[in-house]
Sequence to fold (455 residues):
Amino acid sequence: MDAREAALRQAYGHALGWLASLADRRVPARASVEEVVRALGPELPDGPGDPAAVVDLLASACEPGLTAFPGGRFYGFVIGGTEPAALAADWLVSAWDQNCVLRAASPAYAAVEEVAGPWLLDILGLPDGSSVGFTTGATTANFTCLAAGRDAVLRKAGWDTARAGLAGGPAVRVLAGEQRHMAVDLPLRHLGLGEPQLVPADAQGRIDPDALARALADGQPAPTLVVLQAGEIHSGAFDPFPAAVRAAREADAWVHVDGAFGLWAAASPAHAHLTAGCAAADSWATDAHKTLNVPYDCGLAIVRDPSAVRASMGLHGDYLILHEQGDPSDKVPELSRRGRAVPVWAALRSLGRSGVADLVDRLCRHACAFAEGIAAIDGATVLNDVVFTQVCAAFEDDERTERVLTRLMDDGTVWISGSQWRGRRVMRISVSNWSTTDEDVERALAAIRRAARTA
Ligand SMILES: *Cc1c(COP(=O)(O)O)cnc(C)c1O
Fold:
């Protein structure tokens, strides 16, 4: 066995050990950053070491500091796990080590993107022929789509951003719901557009389409972007797309949808009503590493008009072999990157259309079970309408909610994030992992009841 094979076998053993531990291990990490640093050893070695021994040291030192993100009882933030075919395909991505900039450089990679892109449009109910770019996550997907939108509305106003930049050009107006994710504000800042103008939202966090129409009608017409949301992180609520898109169209705005996890409702016949009207937008950002459960990092930047995203993201250096069909790098801000479409293809190929629908329905069913179980606990109230995968609950006062959250984290059976919503300290549950079972939900509810009893 050569050194490479020995290192890979070592990694394989550790990976299987880690995955097998997920069923029963404590969800939060046992070790602190400092403890892992000590175990790794902070000194840079003077010379080479055996690759297999390096992998062994890495895995052994990190094991106690790992959080069970891919396990069935992690409900914090919005975090997916790793579907088996997607994880295995991701290993191949590293072994293949393809540079995914150009079609001509890796026909295999370009082909996988070409197959996976239309599958995604089909499953998400988005227009045929849209550009599908594979980004690091939804934040970068928002960036990519909003860049295409910014440049398109300025082009319509006679301004060429690619050539002239932003300075001296017409001001771009950006409107977003007040409960938008901060992953919208950050790319707007990167794009030189500053803070969005906030439009009031209802109690579930859905943008008020009448308030949007009034805000758009107010003031001089200007190049405008409207950012809508599919899936609010506390309530899981979806913006009322038909009315909101209509209002935006009347103002000739570019409409973008941040659907990091919520866009996947469209994949399920039972939940597709939540995204109704969403396909009439101009661009959509979502994550594959959340609801689809592929490994990090993988987001999707989808733009109805491929030439719009190509104008903003394409590279036109003449030393590159430009293909008339466009290159993978025309759709995202990066040049060299890993083959992110490969695990997406593998997840879709192994789940099929019905498998993705079942996955979405299962996550929603677990969320409803959480809501029912929590509502039955003395002093607990579920604060949101549970329409998708998110549940927000609170106890009588912020102090008790905080005590329950602390007990829960000490207990270690689950990871549930605390958050602030509608002026209250809340317990937020996001069911996003393919491997969560009914039994996991039962164990989690038992842990919440235990924490509530003593808090
Ligand atoms: C998670 C999330 C994002 C950010 O996604 P990343 O993949 O972390 O970049 C944006 N919007 C919403 C609604 C999210 O839930």
